Amino acid sequence: MFEILTTDQMYDADRKTIDGGIPGDVLMENAGRTVFEEIIRHWSPRSVSVLCGPGNNGGDGFVIARLLRDEGWSVRLGLLGEIEHLGGDAAFHAKQWDGATERLSPALVVGADLIVDCIFGAGLARDITGDVADLVASVNDSISVVVSVDVPSGVDGNSGCIMGCAIKADLTVTFCRAKPGHYLLPGRQLCGELAIRDIGISDQVVSEIRPTCWRNDPVLWRAGIRWPGLDGHKYHRGHLLAFGGTMMTGATRLVARAARRSGVGLLTIVSDASVLPVYAADAPGTMTASISGLEALLNDCRHNAFVVGPGYGVGDSTRSLVLQLLHLCRSTVLDADALTSFSDDPSTLCFAVQGPTVVTPHEGEFTRLFPDIDGDKLARARAAAKRSGATVLIKGADTVIAAPDGRAAISAVDAPWLATAGSGDVLAGVIAGLMAQGMEMFDAACMGVWLHGRSGTDIGPGLIAEDIPDHLPVILRELWLASRK
Ligand SMILES: NC(=O)C1=CN([C@@H]2O[C@H](COP(=O)(O)OP(=O)(O)OC[C@H]3O[C@@H](n4cnc5c(N)ncnc54)[C@H](O)[C@@H]3O)[C@@H](O)[C@H]2O)[C@@H](O)CC1
Ligand SMILES: [K+]
Q1: Where is the YjeF C-terminal domain (predicted)?
Q2: How much is the pTM?
């Protein structure tokens, strides 16, 4: 259930299932029934208004209305357009509804304790305007509980963008698999609780569609974790060089602590000799080295991974260092100042990426590096990964990770506590630590985001960046124990 399907892939899955022998009206009956089941599981009988649009999303509404009425609930139904204009499965199910069919209007909102939103689903093709926009506003202004079918009407299933205006739901029930718009902002916030329900589309059909996007979950990457063996040696667990600046030393101290907690064998902070005592005093297990000895450090291929950017400073020397590191084709994580240093000349950075590289921009850094790439977050991350050859991770509440080969994952963790100074430094450190241990770059980026998100939800209010590295052993132990089952 971790695959994320585009609306076109979902239509394809429907078609393949219908071709495989399950009629479309049965799929629609199943879809309506799952929503009905979710409603009666969540709420006791109350007055319901079902708002139906002109397509199959509206068809689901006729099923839901019938099942709720059969259960003894008080149900009103409103339809956008004429009942004679409904086609196919929606027309079939409209005939099964023996209650009144009202005109879709804000009058249906008055007195309804629960509103079922079946106005538009996957077929939303343009902005919602006019009377329907007024209706959406009345629903959102009401105190009624709102259940959206498939997606909150007005949310684009592929991008999570709002098309004109959108319903704000308390519960969204979608079918088979989630769509990107369920996890990308602002769509995610409008969905409320998300229930993904089976309607008879088999896993086989889903795999035939070859999904390339997933919700970020351990299922995706747990097989790629390099747990140490009994005969292991610290050098088998990598030696990460973390490049530290001279002013904001806290950033690289966080990077270092996070990388070490992620399991890296050795970690050396490389910086100007004048600040090495600051770094050395931070933790006895962290080593330090002067940047003046860089050539020798880089000639030692046991130093198999690099992380640079947090607190490093923007400028020519950062650019030169990054290019020198990328030239070696070892595992490299570039964050913050390492990215901003290429704002004037992003193509040089893209050209230099040859080896396993993860870049971790926030939205501002992303726009500076890829000003011509637009679209939703998923599309932008994919385009940037394809262009640069790096795994691109765009941070935020809906972090997206995209590999150059088109694979992508979206984080679905609600952890607003992570929006705090130093949190991004920790993320860069964890990913670099995992890559130093030999994890593939996309897996390492996904696992880093997941560990970071889980720490955010586990620690919760009051979280400071320093807490995250020290919480990692708890979560890693869980993953390790699960791997031994
Ligand atoms: N066999 C299937 O394809 C199944 C489909 N299902 C449901 O069907 C939905 C998709 O159905 P459809 O493809 O018919 O699409 P929708 O029901 O989402 O909407 C399509 C209709 O809305 C109109 N429309 C689009 N944007 C509009 C706007 N901004 N203002 C006014 N009218 C607008 C279109 O012209 C079209 O008439 C899914 O979201 C899901 O709820 C489920 O019943 C499961 C099975
Ligand atoms: K809907």
Answers
A1: 217-479
A2: 0.96
